[in-house]
Amino acid sequence: MKASELTQWKQRLLALRAEIDVAIEPVRKDDTRVGSEEDEQPLVEMSQVIASKRNRERTESLKRVNRALARIESEPEMFGLCRECEEPIGKRLLAVPHAEFCVECQQSSDGGPKLGRRRHLLDFK
Ligand SMILES: [Zn+2]
Q1: Beta bridge partners of 101
Q2: What is the per-residue pLDDT across 62-107, written as a single tens digit (0 to 9) for each?
Q3: In 1-125, alpha helices (H)
Q4: CA-to-CA dists, residue 102 to 12, 55, 106, angstroms
Q5: CA–CA gap between residue 108 and residue 37 (Å, rounded)
Q6: Measured in angstroms, how far is the CA atom of residue 63 from the centroid of ligand 1?
Q7: Residue 60 C-alpha to ligand 1 middle, in angstroms?
Q8: 31-67: per-residue pLDDT in tens?
Q9: Which residues, chain by chain, have CB under 5 Å from ion ligand 1?
């Protein structure tokens, strides 16, 4: 990948990181509410669970973005290549600039139970 392209990816990743940073919700500990509005409590808890799940996903994305940025610095020749099979990630990178695996490797790492389907796909080739 050319240095100018890498710079572009770096800028995209930095922009993405800023976006995720803003989206992460601060964890609210509203202890004063406990007991005062018991009817509302389950709802508050539920929305906190949802918020923390979203936060976890965002934090996870943030980590990937940071890893991608570190990768551009430390091994620029490897950026855009799958960490598993070292094939170019290709179009997936356009949608997910912090993608670390090509579509095929991503699918196989997404879950064990899908392995059977993957084998089937390989047979088909
Ligand atoms: Zn791969």
Answers
A1: none
A2: 999 999 999 999 999 999 999 999 999 999 999 999 999 999 999 9
A3: 3-23, 41-74, 92-95, 103-110, 115-124
A4: 19, 25, 6
A5: 47
A6: 20
A7: 20
A8: 555 555 667 778 888 888 988 999 999 999 999 999 9
A9: 82, 84-85, 102, 105
